[in-house]
Amino acid sequence: MKYFDKFHPDNFYHIYNHAVGKENLFRKHDNFIFFLSRYDKYISPIAKTFSYCLMPNHFHLLIQIRNDKVIRLLAKNDNDEFDFHKFIMQQLSNFLNSYAKAFNKQCNRRGALFLDFTRRKEINDESYFCKLINYIHHNPVHHGFCKLPSEWNYSSYNSIININKSSKLERNAVFDWFGGIEEFVEFHQNEKSILDL
């Protein structure tokens, strides 16, 4: 299926999900920060992060799943029948459920917060990486929340270009794809952010 590719070691994925109905995933600054802390707990151990954007009612991530050895160590499972995809899906589920439970408690709401199925698309075309990162960073511009990617506080754009501040993002790999920090900034200034998802 186009939007539900299986997870495999070392592969890259565009992952995105949306709030149910007209609900928002984030109502205030603290929600965004808490979401990232949950992400760090559940997803950072299983994946490298190249870019992200958190919008009021949806999010986008570009990640690379870690290698088989790392995942098996985390899962404490060296069995030949280990289901790699199932373990990654469980981590993703734990991440979103952890956030949703806290959000529901804080906002005195009940029920599902995210759509049932988190979409995931395997990325294996190198030329697509730059376009996808640009698309992710331009999401708040596209939706009218700001005029420039640098004006949105809840994406990886500023963390990537702020080279004097440490980051868990794969900053150097991103710069390699674009050809350097200047090229990264220029690409974001000049390229359209339209993608066929």
Short summary of the structure?
This protein has seven helices and four strands; from the N terminus they run βαββααβαααα. It has 197 residues and is an alpha+beta fold. It has a single domain, classed as Transposase IS200-like (Alpha-Beta Plaits), CATH 3.30.70.
Fraction in beta strands: 5-15%
Question: How many separate structural domains?
Answer: 1
- Helicity range: 40-55%
Mean pLDDT figure: 94
CATH superfamily: Transposase IS200-like
| Largest beta sheet: strand ordering | 2-3-1-4
What is the name of the CATH class? Alpha Beta
Low-confidence stretches: none
Major sheet: 4 strands, antiparallel
Order of helices and strands: EHEEHHEHHHH
Description:
This protein is α+β, with helices and mostly antiparallel strands and 197 residues long. The chain has one domain (12-190): Alpha-Beta Plaits (2-Layer Sandwich). Helices cover 44% and strands 14% of the residues. The protein has seven helices and four strands. It has helices at 29-42, 68-75, 84-107, 126-142, 157-161, 171-178, 181-190; strands spanning 12-18, 47-54, 58-65, 119-123. A four-stranded antiparallel β-sheet has the order 2-3-1-4. The chain is globular, with a radius of gyration of 17 Å. It starts with 11 loop residues before the first strand and ends in a 7-residue tail after the last helix.
Question: Which terms summarize this structure?
Answer:
197 residues, Alpha-Beta Plaits, four-stranded antiparallel β-sheet
Question: What's the layout of helices and strands?
Answer:
Layout: E1 12-18, H1 29-42, E2 47-54, E3 58-65, H2 68-75, H3 84-107, E4 119-123, H4 126-142, H5 157-161, H6 171-178, H7 181-190
Antiparallel strand pairs: 1-3, 1-4, 2-3
Helix pairs in contact: 1-3
